Amino acid sequence: MNGLIALVGSGEYLPVMEEVDRRLLASLNLNGRKARIVCLPTAAGREGEASINRWSDMGILHFQALGAEAQALRIIDRQSADDPQCEPALENADLIYFSGGDPGYLYDTMNGSRAWNAAQRAWARGAIYAGCSAGAMILARRIPRLRLAQTQTGFGIVPAEFIIPHFDVVPVLFKPLILALRRQLKDRERMIGVDEETALVGALGGEWRVMGRGGVHVFTKHGEQRYTNGQTLTLD
Questions:
Q1: Which of 13, 55, 168, 204 suits a disulfide with 195, CB 3.0-4.6 Å?
Q2: CA 146 to CA 201: how far, in whole Å?
Q3: Which phi and psi angles does 8 have, rounded to 5°?
Q4: 3-state secondary structure (DSSP) of residue 41
Q5: d(CA 6, CA 210)
Q6: What value, to the nearest 5°, has the Cα angle with vertex 113 and ends 107 and 116?
Q7: Secondary structure class of 201 (helix, strand, coil)
């Protein structure tokens, strides 16, 4: 990925994320044309029509209000992820946004699919990746399945073993599992927690900035560091 990456803890398509999304759009070099946004409700693919349509409509309305051209692609299962008709929109997108839902299902649906490969071509030329909750989690090396106390493979794009969204409101029931994930970290490995209504925005090999009301927590084997709105960090 050669463009910006936004890891969002919660709040996709809501007014609280307008500042983040305006910054993402402002980073694009569009030569006067409108930004082309593709919203993907894939992580909610098993939640039913109402949820899929809700995320799709919210994404379109949100980015249209910010002056962009927006569409939602109905990629909700492996069959639709392998539909070649989706490829042109993804290849030509300036920003591809994955909203929340089930991270394991999202990864399994997209991994190796025609849609993911088309999106990779967009990211290689500098398109933005934005992912909220599940959409952020899949970029880590591993994806925790908190209800089952298990992990599965992630895409490993962001240099982190785990990315945990909604970090400031993790239920008490799951806190021992979060601690167990931290104990798995080896030297030079990290786990990132992103609070609700907060985003970590940056580029691979470059600087990352915290934006929003909460914080970003970076855990290593030996300690923890919390960063708040406006603070920067590097992920090497």
A1: 168
A2: 25
A3: -110, 130
A4: coil
A5: 10
A6: 70
A7: strand
Q: What residue spans of the chain are helical by DSSP H?
A: 18-26, 49-65, 78-81, 87-91, 103-110, 114-124, 134-137, 175-183
CA distance linking residue 99 with residue 122, whole number of Å:
18
How far apart (Å, rounded) are the C-alpha atoms in residues 36 and 66? 12
- How many Å apart are CA 85 and CA 12, to the nearest integer? 26
DSSP annotation of 7 reads E
Find out whether 198 and 216 touch, Cβ atoms under 8 Å: yes
Residue count of the chain, please give it: 236
Radius of gyration of the chain (CA): 17
Distance CA 22, CA 95 (A): 12
Q: What is the pLDDT of residues 212-223, one digit of tens each?
A: 999 999 999 989
What's the pTM value of the predicted model, to 2 decimals? Answer: 0.95
Structure token pair of residue 178: 């979060």
Task: Note whether 36 and 63 are within 8 A (CB).
Answer: no
pLDDT bin (cut points 50, 70, 90) of residue 172 is confident
Where residue 194 falls among pLDDT bands split at 50, 70, 90?
very high
Give the chain's domains with CATH numbers.
Answer: 5-234 (3.40.50.880)
Dihedral sign computed on CA atoms, order 75, 66, 199, 235: positive
pLDDT tens for 72-85 read 999 999 999 999 99
Q: How far apart are CA 68 and CA 220, in angstroms?
A: 39
